[in-house]
Write a structure and sequence with these properties.
Elements (H helix, E strand, L loop, with lengths): L2 H9 L3 E11 L2 H16 L4 E8 L3 E2 L13 E11 L2 H10 L1
Antiparallel strand pairs: 1-4, 2-4, 3-4
Length: 97
């Protein structure tokens, strides 16, 4: 997103927010793919614009949750800055993302 588009959105009353996500998966590839798809879905929303995204590296989890039944687990964290058209849409995003 360009600075001009960001400025225009904020002048229209859009809200700026920062969101953090974590994905955990059984393989490094799956974890990376799932996070990429998650952020991609956010970009498709009409009432939200992704300003920036910072995807952390995929790390092996030392003590995975019991759902992995002794198997390996990998984790990735994303820091995503967005602007949303209203408080209602921000709450919607928090609930569904």
């Amino acid at each position: 997103m360009t600075k001009d588009v960001l400025r225009e959105s904020l002048e229209k009353g859009w809200l700026r927010a920062r969101m953090f996500f974590e994905v955990m998966g059984a393989t490094e590839e799956y974890t990376k793919q799932a996070m990429t798809e998650h952020v991609s879905k956010m970009r498709k929303l009409e009432n939200m614009k992704v300003v920036s995204e910072n995807l952390g590296e995929v790390l092996k989890v030392e003590d995975p949750p019991k759902q992995f039944r002794g198997k390996e687990a990998y984790s990735q964290i994303a820091d995503v800055e967005v602007v949303v058209s209203s408080l209602e849409n921000l709450v919607y995003s928090v609930i569904f993302f």
